[in-house]
């Protein structure tokens, strides 16, 4: 029986165990708009209604968040959607098993290049002001070819973490235009709040990061937004709530109450009439510490692409709840795994697929909210095959054909070492 057959239907709810429930939860987060649901749950009474107190701790890097959750300084954490997958696969420093029963929504990230680099792209390609993400990637490929001919140093791009949606989406965007992310450019880790300053200082030539830092760079006149997350794959999960599996097993009632509180907060965050209030709260120094008017525009999907007045409006740039945005779907975890394999971070094997899928826990989501709050289709489905949910290069991801999917990309890294017989 394959991993796809085992997970294609609904998972059974776990057996509840006796344990000491918690009323006060220490929660780590990074100052980004996609932490809105967690912040709103604490700030506007949704956690209190469920008898919980969320003590939010702002951190500076995803590695810190990962380690502080592993070392029990945090009970739960705002995490990049690939982080639980990487943890279950034992990837990265100090790997510690992590699961997610709740996604914090979709959207909110973008790719920004320096104005100088974007101007060079326009010089080498017939690039319209409203060029698509794919057209921008192909224009960058032409600029890089000219730079190589002149013997120039390849550009340096920032992303937030090796096991991040930003890393995989940046790579996906680059590769779709024919650019090899490991040979044609240099990718480095830059904490989200530092990306705009790093771009302004010339330390990096572009970045992929969550809101509001792309808009901050464009409004400062140092960056040009060339692609949004929705351009690459609209349904891609952005951030999730991470927790240690043993903690979840020991505190089942707490986990259910937390999910109920987050679900209510996500519904509230999705309503446009609440965005003024939400933006003011997020702008506070305790949280994002960015101008409220920028956050408000980001929530509305209203972008200043650059400082020259070019604008774009993305409908539902953030989906905090609609369209089952909070459902932790294992097939999305498997797409993340496919990108880990594509870029040489891990080998493809049946065991690794099973571990990757186990990071996303729809069973805990349904246990808290019921089947009526869950989508009707299977937990593992084909991704990118419906209108409004296409990949930028028109690929379709079928988890049942993982090897063919990965092998079909023209740009990819050499495969990681093959697993031993015990791993298969």
Automatic annotation (TrEMBL):
GO terms for cellular component: endomembrane system. It is found in: Endomembrane system. InterPro entries: NrtA/CpmA_ABC-bd_dom (IPR044527). Keywords: ATP-binding, Cell inner membrane, Cell membrane, Membrane, Nucleotide-binding, Transport. SUPFAM superfamilies: Periplasmic binding protein-like II. One of its GO terms (molecular function) is ATP binding. The keyword Nucleotide-binding applies. Transmembrane segments: none annotated. The keyword Repeat does not apply. Its main location: membrane. PANTHER family: ALIPHATIC SULFONATES-BINDING PROTEIN-RELATED, BLL4572 PROTEIN. This is NitT/TauT family transport system ATP-binding protein.
